[in-house]
Amino acid sequence: MTHARNTKVMNRFDLTQRLVAMLKHEEAVIGGIGNTNFDLWAAGHRPQNFYMLGSMGLAFPIALGVALAQPNRRVFALEGDGSLLMQLGCLSTIATLAPKNLTMVVMDNGIYQITGAQPTPAAGHTDIVAIAAASGLANSSWAADEDDFERLIEQSLSASGPSLIGVRIDDKPGTGATRRDPVQIRERFMAGLGVRELL
Fold first, then answer.
1. 3-class SS of residue 93
2. Does pLDDT of 116 surpass 70?
3. What is the rounded CA–CA span in Å between residue 70 and residue 95?
4. Alpha carbons 161 and 81: distance in angstroms, whole number
5. Strand 139-142's sheet: what is its strand order?
6. Which of 20, 139, 177, 190 could disulfide-link 196, Cβ–Cβ 3.0 to 4.6 Å?
7. Helix, strand and coil percent figures for the chain, each rounded to 5
8. Using one digit for the tens of pLDDT, what is the confidence trace for 120-168?
9. pLDDT tens for residues 23-67?
10. % of residues, the chain, pLDDT over 90
């Protein structure tokens, strides 16, 4: 397993664009709060994207619910390191339930970027991918660079269990901003998943 110190510092928007470009089958994508979903919105708005507002740390739990409810749909979750620290217990739950259609991406810049760039408690000495592996998520890896990120995304599509990919990112702000309308976001997402007609 590559250690975080051996990985290239990449850009969140670039990685999000790369992921969105790889989506071909109406895959669901859950974007964590703040810059993570700003970049998802800017990378290519799709009805299968769910943009979280204010619910810090819940991208992986929400994605787990979607993955269990729609086992034939590939589900991606994009989460910041600070948000994941608020819900580390979800890693054990995901490992136990083991949906094979779930891929989680942790965008790690070691700071709470949107609130003023305060360092997280984990910055510099906690390996989130090692925590995931120790929680039972065997398919957990740091992406060494952009090409490796795309390889790991592709590999996750045929994995026999959930996958977690850690990426070290810079502190560039998000691109654009999500339209903050929770009802519209929910309704469009549910229509995108085929569980409700768009009103």
1. helix
2. no
3. 17
4. 22
5. 49-51, 28-31, 75-80, 102-108, 163-168, 139-142
6. 190
7. 40, 20, 40
8. 777 777 899 999 999 999 999 999 999 999 999 999 999 999 999 999 9
9. 999 999 999 988 899 999 999 889 999 999 888 899 999 999 999
10. 67
DSSP string across 126-146? --HHHHHHHTT--EEEE--SH
pLDDT at 196: 77
Query: Residue 50 is inside which H or E element, if any?
Result: strand 49-51
How much is the CA Rg of the chain, to the nearest whole Å?
15
Lookup: tokens for 100: 């094979």
42: tokens are: 């800017």
Strand partners for 196: none
pLDDT value for 146: 97
pTM of structure = 0.92
For the record, the structure tokens of 157 come out as: 């599509």
Question: Which DSSP letter does residue 167 get?
Answer: E
Q: What is the pLDDT of residue 124?
A: 75
Instruction: List Cα–Cα distances, 18 to 132, 153, 171, in angstroms.
Output: 23, 10, 18
Whether the Cβ atoms of residue 145 and residue 8 lie closer than 8 Å to each other: yes
The H-assigned helical ranges of 53-193 are: 59-69, 81-85, 89-97, 128-134, 146-156, 182-192
Q: Residue 7 class from Cβ within 10 Å (0-12 exposed, 13-18 middle, 19+ buried)? A: buried
